[in-house]
Amino acid sequence: MGHVLELRRLTKRYAGHAALEALTLEIEEGEFFSLLGPSGCGKTTTLRLIAGFETPTEGEVILRGEALAAKAPHERNVATVFQNYALFPHLTVRANIEFGLRYRRGAERSIEPVVEMLQLGGKLGRKPEQLSGGEKQRVALARALVLRPDVLLLDEPLSALDPNLRAQVRTELRALQRRVGIAFVFITHDQEEALSVSDRIALLRGGRLEQLGTPRELYLAPRTRFAAGFLGAVNWVQGVGVRPESTRLSLDGASGGERCVAATVVSSTFLGNCLHVEALTMEGERCVAELARHDMHYAEGQSVHVVWDARDELNVPG
Amino acid sequence: MKRLRLIFLAPAAALLAGLFVAPLAILAVYTVLTRGVYGGVSAPFTVENWTRLADPLYLAIVWRSFVVAGISTAICVVLGFPLALFIARSGARKNLYLALVMLPFWTSFLVRTYAWMFLLRDTGLINTVLLAVGVIGEPLPLLYNWGAVIVGLVYGYLPFLVLPLFATLERMDPALVEAAADLGAGPWQTVWRVILPVSAPGLRAGAILVFIPCLGAYLTPDLLGGGKTILIGTLIQNQFTSARDWPFGSAVALGLMGLVMVLLWLHARRGGEPLL
Fold first, then answer.
1. What is the pLDDT of residue A265?
2. In terms of CA atoms, which chain A residue is nearest residue B196?
3. Minimal Cβ distance to B183: which of A72, A84, A99
4. Which chain A residue is nearest to residue B176, measuring alpha carbons?
5. Least confident segment among A32-36, A66-70, A216-220, B269-273
6. CB-based contact, A14 to chain B, within 8 Å
């Protein structure tokens, strides 16, 4: 399968400050692609450039082989799910979903399949203000998907939801994407969200591409300290990085294939599903070991060894 | 605490009771009395002042006032909507533009109306320039007609439409406009299908704020209409001065107030926003 969307050296500068600098990406047909990064990294700018809400300073957005530079947002066959959903408050759910049908060629004539897929059958007569957060999100998805866009852009669509609903909704989102087969470009600052739903992730930092890869590659083989730290917690011990879940504590020291360093326990935190024990090495490096609940009790000030398997070290070049 | 509240409320309450409620009550009593020979009122009580309102002569004046106020309001809507939208979307310069909209309020309405007379009369700026350039052979009849009255009303009350509409448009989520474009709607379709309906409460509030003063306007029709254009405001004024019929003037004034209150009630019933 070829790529549906291509960004070529896409750049956006505001009054001297670069929001996005020479971003080059190819997004494959039917791919769940995430743009991940902290606020101000350029992910939202990228989405707005693709949708056409902003004009690039340099570079190109190419959709199905066609450069979009001269096209206004309403002429681009992409659709967006906005962060706060931006449902039209004066229209019913049905009218919201039907809004774009009269403008877009290739759109589904009937809203029924989408309504059924997103389980909105009973809500068609309601106004957006009468919907829950999850329902609003499904209406926003339905309104965009009914147009059969080449690419669906999602701007932090889970951030407005109740935290305990998010994990469930992101699973549903992933299943939905598989079902419709449309490429999703998903914006998020939450690494867990990105890891759990994406085929590939582009990690952005300060307007530049920091690393591009599958969730596995980013988590297990980060190429920079920033990437290592953004995708999850890392202990930096003796110049190498080790994730807390690969770190354990021992009173006896290392066994075969393992490396170890002497340390003193600083604190122990019970997190329900596990324990986080923090220790300070002689060199003053803090490291956290994620331990099972039934592991032995480590007292504050106790002398221990921080132990890890050499295979679990993150090989960060920088 | 409760006493303190009473103390602070008392001056305003006294002012309202003395200068608003009491005159209104007097006016209400006047409407059921007979006219005095040299103005004022005298006995006996009568309902004739109210029944006279149904006279076709006066109904025609009421109807004409509604038409003039309606046309003026419609023009204000057509001019004010793009203006309010422009100001709401002009970012940092917003406050400058709002100040410009309010600028006319810094001088007296009377003086500004006279300024319009200087512009519109036969020897006024417009006619003088057009004559000098040779576009016209003799002065255009710009002043002392309905057109001049409507121009004056639109000029005077346009800010009352722009301000509440601006407030509504500014509160509107900008993502709604982007969402419309994103779903394929062009700029005009976005205005028609999203911006206009979403800002309808502000537009209605502004239209009422223009319509009501236009309905009772006295100064503008009197000066720019040259006394040839009788509207409700002029009618009331005539009753208290030249006609010396205070009871009938009171009935017209209260009748107008009643009409306005019905309009406001209709607005409130549709869930409209507060007008000020």
1. 94
2. A90
3. A99
4. A86
5. B269-273
6. no
B260 vs A: CB within 8 A: no
Mutate to test the interface with B, among A14, A47, A54, A82 (most CBs of B within 10 A): A82
Cα separation, A68 vs A86, in Å, equals: 24
Type of residue numbered A263: A
Which 8-state DSSP code applies to residue A207?
T
Dmax of chain A from CA atoms?
A: 72
Give the separation between CA A188 and CA A190, rounded to whole angstroms.
5
For chain A, say whether B196 makes contact (Cβ under 8 Å). Answer: no
Predicted confidence (pLDDT) at residue B274 exceeds the cutoff of 60 = no
- In this complex, the residue of A82, A99, A144 whose CB is nearest that of residue B175 is A82
pLDDT tens for residues B55-95? 898 889 989 999 999 999 999 999 999 999 999 998 889 99
Whether pLDDT at A256 is above 80: no
Q: If you average pLDDT over residues A211-219, what whole number do you get?
A: 96
Interacting residues of A43 by C-beta distance below 8 A, sequence separation 6+:
A35, A36, A37, A187, A188, A189, A204
Token couple for A96: 């919201």
Per-residue confidence at A102, pLDDT binned at 50, 70, 90? confident
Q: What is the pLDDT of residue A107?
A: 73
Show the tokens assigned to B14: 């006294």
Under 8 Å between Cβ of B83 and B221: no
**Ramachandran region, residue A222 (left: φ > 0; alpha: ψ -120 to 50; beta: rest):** beta
Whether residue B192 lies within 8 A of chain A, CB to CB, comes out as no
Q: Is B171 on the interface with A (CB under 8 A)?
A: no
Is the torsion defined by CA of B12, B13, B15, B21 positive or negative? positive
Mean pLDDT, residues B24-43: 84
Residues of B in contact with A47 (CB under 8 A): none
- Res B266 pLDDT > 90: no
Asked if the bond preceding A157 is cis, omega within 30° of 0, the reply is no
Give the pLDDT of residue B276. Answer: 47
Q: Is the confidence at residue B272, as pLDDT, over 70? A: no
Residue B140 near chain A (CB below 8 Å): no
- Alpha-carbon span A219 to A66, nearest angstrom: 34
Nearest by CB: A89 against B178, B180, B198: B198
pLDDT in tens, A260-287: 899 999 999 999 889 999 999 988 999 9
Residues 35-74 of A with CB under 8 A from B: 51-53, 72-74
> CA torsion B153→B154→B155→B161, rounded to 10°?
120
Q: Do A100 and B185 touch (CB under 8 A)?
A: yes
| CB-based contact, A7 to chain B, within 8 Å | no
